[in-house]
């Protein structure tokens, strides 16, 4: 994917599934379930043991149109290793200046209007609003008044029931971790994961209808 098409794929999905667990052993099975249910953007966090192998495996097994990236990327070395594994995008909880202008899209984290503005001005095609639940959709709506051109991806503490509210407030996409993945990475039911993922995909469709 080109840089533009990766970001467009994330926006089309509407939800980025944040895969975080002590080990990435179950991420392959989780990825299949998510994509089948309509969630087609996956972020493998580097805090999960085996994350680089998981990124490589997901890129091989999933359709070409699925965006697979790395999360919690905090150093240039981690960014390079993630891309070597096949990551099509990188996400960080903060703005890491060393990653500005990197070879794949980087979505830095920001919390204040100044941080959002500076991250966007540095070239971020999407800015991760984090932790979003501490702020709420009204914050995003107000932020887009003076900063209408900044595309924002709220992440952190968002529930499936919140998806439509965030999207109608102006979010380009939302990131969901625990509320979507649940206990699937620790042996939990993949059937229940599929139901949650379908609910998330339906919420995106509802908000955009």
From TrEMBL:
SUPFAM superfamilies the UniProt entry points to: Aldolase
Listed pathway(s): Carbohydrate acid metabolism
Keywords assigned: Carbohydrate metabolism, Lyase
Lineage: superkingdom: Bacteria
Pfam families in the cross-refs: Aldolase
Main enzyme class: lyase
Complex and partners: Homotrimer.
Family named by the database record: Belongs to the KHG/KDPG aldolase family.
Name this polypeptide is given: 2-dehydro-3-deoxyphosphogluconate aldolase/(4S)-4-hydroxy-2-oxoglutarate aldolase
